[in-house]
């Protein structure tokens, strides 16, 4: 069963969009620069049928040539079709238009975005937002090409960076907002909705996990504090010091022994509900602080004696 990746769905959606003549020229330049070999003929290798049709159409419209299409079946790892486009006509003209020895000339944002779109169709990947961290990358053979892509991405404040991976250079963006912005610039609305839905779900899930962790930490802190206060109460009882405490504080200590695991607010609610003494969280804190102070006074007194 062939399960489409997020990258495949995104590229297929991009391939089905309408583009004006200016965009088409920038798209094919971005694609051919990084995903073809230029010798006596131009050879392009692709794995996506939709992208193959799209590139074939743009080459035919822009350069008035009919690329030869060869389909091969690759059985290594998994069975998949490989599409090879060969251009034998107007090669010198196409080389002149692409001009690999010079940086691409893209004076307006529309051309920059279209160039990035074409390059992404050729050498781009984006991780599945449902199963891994956010990561979109362009895998390139030359460092200067990686720098060109990074520059273009950063023209739109996408915080692109470059790393070397083996013999390749990778221009990447990791911030989910930046990836979302780039998909939006590509006008791939369905992919954008899928990405945003996943991002919202993951952000919500992470927030819930953080809240749960915070709640567990608070519960642990409350339990530890309650156990320490039980030790303080036992000390007062063993040393016959409970008689030195007023009745309301004694009542609070009695309830604390009964409910050592609850928070100050919960203890205040229990006492207010079960007795005539209406007390709040701050009142509970006052009584239990008094417990600690009395213990410390008598412990220090015993040391001095």
Architecture overview:
- The chain is of the alpha+beta class.
- It has two domains: 6-187, Homing endonucleases (Endonuclease I-creI, Roll); 211-304, no CATH class.
- Helix content is 59%, strand content 13%.
- It has helices spanning 6-15, 21-34, 49-63, 91-98, 109-123, 143-154, 176-185, 189-238, 247-258, 264-274, 281-304, and strands spanning 37-38, 42-46, 68-74, 80-87, 124-126, 136-140, 161-165, 168-173.
- The strands form two sheets. The protein has a four-stranded antiparallel beta sheet with strand order 1-2-4-3, with helices on one face.
- Strand 1 and strand 2 form a beta hairpin.
- Helix 9 crosses helix 11 (281-304).
- The chain is rod-shaped and about 105 Å long.
- The mean pLDDT is 84.
CATH homologous superfamily name of the largest domain? Homing endonucleases
Helix percentage:
55-70%
CATH class of the largest domain: Alpha Beta
What is the N-to-C order of secondary-structure elements (H for helix, E for strand)?
HHEEHEEHHEEHEEHHHHH
Question: How many domains?
Answer: 2
The biggest beta sheet reads:
4 strands, antiparallel
């Amino acid at each position: 069963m062939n399960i489409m990746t997020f990258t495949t769905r995104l590229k297929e959606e991009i391939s089905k969009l309408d583009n004006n003549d200016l965009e088409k020229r920038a798209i094919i330049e971005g694609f051919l620069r990084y995903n073809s070999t230029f010798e006596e003929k131009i050879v392009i290798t692709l794995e996506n049928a939709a992208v193959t049709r799209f590139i074939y159409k743009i080459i035919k419209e822009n350069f008035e040539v009919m690329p030869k299409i060869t389909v091969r079946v690759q059985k290594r790892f998994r069975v998949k079709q490989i599409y090879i486009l060969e251009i034998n006509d107007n090669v010198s003209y196409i080389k002149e238009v692409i001009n690999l020895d010079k940086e691409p000339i893209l004076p307006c944002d529309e051309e920059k975005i279209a160039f990035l779109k074409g390059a992404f169709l050729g050498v781009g990947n984006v991780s599945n937002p449902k199963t891994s961290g956010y990561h979109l990358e362009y895998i390139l053979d030359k460092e200067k090409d990686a720098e060109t892509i990074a520059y273009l991405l950063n023209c739109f404040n996408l915080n692109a960076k470059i790393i070397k991976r083996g013999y390749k250079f990778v221009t990447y963006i990791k911030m989910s907002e930046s990836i979302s912005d780039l998909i939006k610039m590509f006008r791939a609305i369905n992919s954008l909705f899928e990405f945003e839905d996943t991002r919202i779900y993951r952000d919500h899930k992470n927030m819930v996990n953080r809240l749960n962790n915070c709640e567990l930490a608070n519960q642990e802190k409350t339990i530890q504090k309650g156990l320490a206060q039980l030790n303080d109460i036992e000390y007062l009882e063993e040393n016959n010091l409970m008689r030195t405490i007023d009745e309301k504080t004694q009542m609070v200590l009695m309830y604390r022994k009964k409910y050592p695991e609850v928070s100050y607010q919960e203890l205040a609610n229990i006492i207010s509900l079960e007795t005539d003494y209406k007390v709040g969280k701050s009142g509970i804190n006052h009584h239990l602080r008094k417990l600690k102070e009395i213990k410390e006074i008598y412990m220090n007194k015993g040391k001095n004696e």
